[in-house]
Amino acid sequence: MTKRFILATILLMAASLMPPAGLAEHHEEGEHHGEAKHHGDGNSKHKSVESLSPELRGLLKQEMQALQTGMVSAIPALVSGNLAEVAEIARKMEKSYILRQSITREQMHELHSSLPPSFLKQDKAFHYYAGMLAHVADRKKLELVNFYFSKLTESCVTCHSEHAPHKFPGFAGKRDEGGHDHH
Asked: Concatenated DSSP letters for the chain?
């Protein structure tokens, strides 16, 4: 196989996994209909991105678009062996392009009290994998670079299939009653 063919195949695979440019818009439309989380006071509260303030939703949308750009731009760097660029991109994703730079303490509280715990857990895992990707890319551990890039992609797929299958029709109906993915 030629390098161009391999690159084209990887780019096509990645493009098929990447969300459309308006990824965070699915959050604004209330993808968590019917999902209620119970609190200690006995009241249930609907937790989703749609309950965020417009300012915080805007920041989250910018964040998701920046993460998408990072994922897409990491592919040519990875397949061309530019691990320094992969590490730089991964560090930006780990540190959250927008949110950590722009969010207030009150908005951080709003974010954590408004989003489902599973969303927050998946977000934490994504940023962990980005940090690990930067770490192994700095050390030129190509096999581990590929592993952590695949974990980042898997992280995106898991979150989209759980929190926005209506926006990503390929994921609709792929979960069994136990909540396990069967892709």
From this structure: --HHHHHHHHHHHHHHHSPPTTTTHHHHTTTTTT-EEE-TTS-EEE-SGGGS-HHHHHHHHHHHHHHHHHHHHHHHHHHTT-HHHHHHHHHHHHT-SSHHHH--HHHHHHHHHHS-HHHHHHHHHHHHHHHHHHHHHHTT-HHHHHHHHHHHHHHHHHHHHHH-TTTSGGGTT-B-TTS-B--
